[in-house]
Amino acid sequence: MIETRGLRKSFVSRQGREKKKVEAVRGVDLDVAEGEIFGFLGPNGAGKTTTLRMLATLIEPDDGRATIAGADLRADPGEVRRRIGYVAQGGSTWDDSTAREELVLQARLYGASKSDALARAARVLDGFQLSEYADRKCKTYSGGQRRRVDIALGIIHEPKVVFLDEPTTGLDPQSRAHMWDEVRRLRAEGMTVFITTHYLDEADALCDRISIMDNGEIVASGTPADLKREISGDVVRVGLPVDAIAAAAQALNSYKIETYEDNVRLYVEDGAVAIPQILRALDAAGVPLGTVELHRPSLDDVFLTKTGRSLRES
Amino acid sequence: MKLLRDISLIFNRQMQLLLRNPIWIFVGVFQPVMYLLLFAPLLKPALQVQTNAEAYEIFVPGLLVLLAIFGGLFQGFGLIAELRAGVIERSRVTPVSRLALLLGRSLRDVVSLIAQAVIITLLALLFDLRVFLPNLLLAYLMLALISLMTSAVSYGVALAVKSEDALAPLMNTVAQPVLLLSGILLPLTYAPGWLQGIADWNPFSWAVNGTRALFRGDLGAPDVWQGLLIMAVLAVLAVAWAARQFARSVR
User: Fold this and answer.
1) Which end of chain B is more exposed for a tag (fewer CB within 10 A), N or C?
2) Does B3 touch chain A (CB under 8 A)?
3) pTM of the full structure
4) DSSP string, A115-134
């Protein structure tokens, strides 16, 4: 559904008199399959939004090529526009307009007749549970409602692909969860969803596949589970009385193990499978048990491994 | 066909929003009305003309051109607000014509200007101004062309600078010499030769002369067609340039 090869973009930024060339995106390859929720992950300034804006025909790439929903980005951006929806990060509604007015206009800009536009607006308002506020001015909406209007505007013409730029940034946890449901609903309706985020939990919970971008380049791609498995496996931390550590280390010597003052840590392929075996081995050796904790690697660990720093710091 | 449809879509939306807050039309009229009431009475003695009507024949056309220039040049502020709200970017990802994004807005500006011009003309009638209707309509055409040009320029500059803080001084700097060199407040026939020489290079001074000729009933004066032609050419150039700004990246 989306295929890019060697996509590049640089900007000239001016600092005082000095002109500096900033390579925002340096050769991005992406492959997004039809019907996927594809997560595009990375810290602020990684080049996510620039990549997205190139794919949405808003800025022209310096180099590289891309095919989106079967249309060539550089040869036929007009056709790409007809087949995609794009929802910008900063919102897209006018304070003094109502959601219905905005939706009808947007549908008509895509070529719908007046009656078709009205029907489409009614349908998406209903789908996004906005009918109740549809005829109020946008400035009266809550943040979550307004974001839902933005997304409704992006999909009013039933695009094959919809690009969502950080759709949950700034939303409260409840609105975020609501938004995740909306995104899943779009996929259920047959859309391919391309979503940028800097929330790791969001990428993990919502996305079928992700690419991690850092410094203008893709540093890792895959399903969240694969990426996590790739880096280390799970850690099982067993808390024990101080005098039982040595006996425990003895009983578990077939595992990769590190001992600490009041606990041991075992590095295993799959913690859920290993825990019963560990407990049985300790029981057989007569070691009194304290606590057991399972630590699964997060996408943050993936990011740390790939880039040498934590996403949260950057 | 698609272009006309797109223009009417954008225009209708803009008109709808304007009519939701019609107060802006009256705010726009306030300053010219103040000129009409508080400045124009000085003109009869200053211009050494016989009647008020004569003074208004000279002053009102200039005032209307002034309104068209300033009204147009400051439309860019609304566009910057739209940029900030993301409305422009949302339009740009649709297949809508880029020219329509500009013309739909500029035509709204033309309509609101003509509404203001009508209000001022009606008020001036109270001060004994008399003008033939066909001439008046041609004068309004001149105003429409001026307003189309200045609002297009303002939109183009707004898209380039993207900030009110930059737009305001820029527009003021342009507008002031244009105003002084177009003989809007006092006709340039009173100006020394060098000043007239410079003013001849100011296209708006041609527009003011043409509009004045129309108001005094001199339809055949070369000032009329010259003014209209110059404004039409400049309006086309300004629209072409500003439409390119809309087509280029808007960040």
Assistant:
1) N
2) no
3) 0.82
4) HHHHHHHHHHHHHTT-GGGT
pLDDT tens-digit readout, B99-112 = 999 999 999 999 99
Cα distances (angstroms) measured from residue B87 to each of A2, A78, A295, B132: 26, 19, 45, 43
- Contact between chains at A92 and B85 (C-beta distance less than 8 A): yes
The reply to whether A208 and A145 lie within a common domain is: yes
Render pLDDT for A242-297 as a digit per residue (tens, 0 to 9). 888 888 888 888 887 877 888 888 888 788 888 888 888 888 888 887 888 888 77
Residue at which a domain ends, from A190, A210, A229: A229
Contacts of A78 in chain B (CB under 8 A): 95
Q: Cβ distance B117 to B143 under 8 Å?
A: yes
The answer to the question of residue A109 being in a domain is no
Domain of A51 in residue numbering reads as 2-93+141-229
pLDDT tens, residue by residue, A127-140: 888 898 889 999 99
Distance CA B182, CA B175 (A): 11
Q: What is the CATH number of the domain that holds A242?
A: 3.30.70.260
Give the separation between CA B11 and CA B30, rounded to whole angstroms: 25
End-to-end CA distance of chain A: 31
Number of domains in chain A: 2
Residues A152 and A179 in one domain: yes
* B245 close contact with A: CB closer than 8 A: no
Are both A147 and A62 inside the same structural domain?
yes
| A303 within domain boundaries | no
Residue of A nearest to B15 (CA): A97
Instruction: Kindly report the nearest CA distance between residue A95 and chain B, in angstroms.
Output: 8
- The CB density around residue A5, as the number of other CB atoms within 10 Å, is 14
Torsion on CA atoms A22, A28, A74, A77, rounded to nearest 10: -100
Report d(CA B196, CA A190) in Å as an integer: 69
Query: B31-90 pLDDT, tens per residue?
Result: 888 888 888 888 888 888 888 788 888 889 999 999 999 889 989 999 999 999 989 889
